[in-house]
Design a protein that fits this description.
This protein is mostly helical. It has 11 helices and 3 strands. The chain starts with 5 loop residues before the first helix and ends in an 8-residue tail after the last helix. Pfam families: FCD, GntR.
């Protein structure tokens, strides 16, 4: 995603509730949601036969859904090898965080303390803390996705939220570059709680400043993880497409 094209993408993003989706679009939505929830790792091969059976759809429908996600940059088709989950590039990671800062920090700075999305942020924090106690780090990651989606919901813009859903799928793939989920998520759980508390206490500017620092730190962690994985890949032990 190029930041220059954000306005165009927002204009062309279908607004939920305004037009019916066909089956392929719904399957694409489901697969995108599964990417957000960490079901598929970067570089993972997707079996047409297996997914058709799992989703109870035809190959033509699945291929149309694949085309949607390939166009979005979430999947890729390699001749004679089929479809696989994209491996984020360094440029993609940097751009993801650039867009996140534009959307999330602005949304928090303008947040209304009684907005329903603040309650969803608090719920996501509570869920993440519960999963943390159980050392269920993949679920912590999913709760973290829910937390940030709730931030996007502060905008009350269906187009921004739809754009952010796509961004979250790319973000979860970037997170997949780091094998240690505890290392990835544990430092940010207290910050999620602090940001939510600041909004509840009607301090949106302070919350936005904390979130800006948070995103800057997170970006550095993911870029470092990317660099390590690329060094490993250059030695012939990198991403698998199986």
């Amino acid at each position: 995603m190029n930041i220059i094209n954000i306005a165009e993408l927002m204009v062309n993003t279908p607004v939920p509730g305004l037009s019916p989706q066909n089956l392929a679009d719904r399957i694409a939505d489901q697969l995108r949601n599964e990417l957000v929830h960490g079901k598929y790792a970067p570089g993972m091969h997707l079996s047409e036969a297996g997914l058709c059976e799992q989703l109870n759809v035809s190959r033509n429908t699945l291929r149309e859904a694949f085309r949607v996600l390939i166009k979005e940059g979430l999947l890729q088709h390699i001749p004679h090898r089929g479809v696989s989950v994209i491996v984020p590039t360094l440029e993609t990671i940097i751009d993801i965080y650039r867009v996140r800062k534009l959307i999330e920090c602005r949304a928090v700075s303008l947040a209304y303390p009684l907005h329903p999305a603040v309650k969803r942020m608090r719920s996501a924090v509570s869920q993440a803390e519960a999963y943390q106690q159980k050392k269920h780090w993949a679920a912590v990651g999913t709760a973290n996705m829910d937390f940030h989606r709730a931030i996007a919901e502060l905008t009350d813009s269906p187009r921004v939220i739809a754009l952010f859903d796509h961004l979250l799928a790319e973000l979860r793939l970037a997170f997949g570059l780091l094998d240690d989920a505890e290392f990835l998520h544990s430092p940010y759980l207290p910050m999620n709680g602090q940001i939510t508390t600041l909004l509840e206490q009607q301090q949106p500017d302070t919350a936005a400043e904390l979130l800006s620092d948070y995103l800057h730190h997170s970006e550095r962690v993911i870029i470092a993880a990317y660099s390590r994985r690329m060094r490993t890949d250059s030695r012939g032990n990198g991403f698998s497409h199986k």
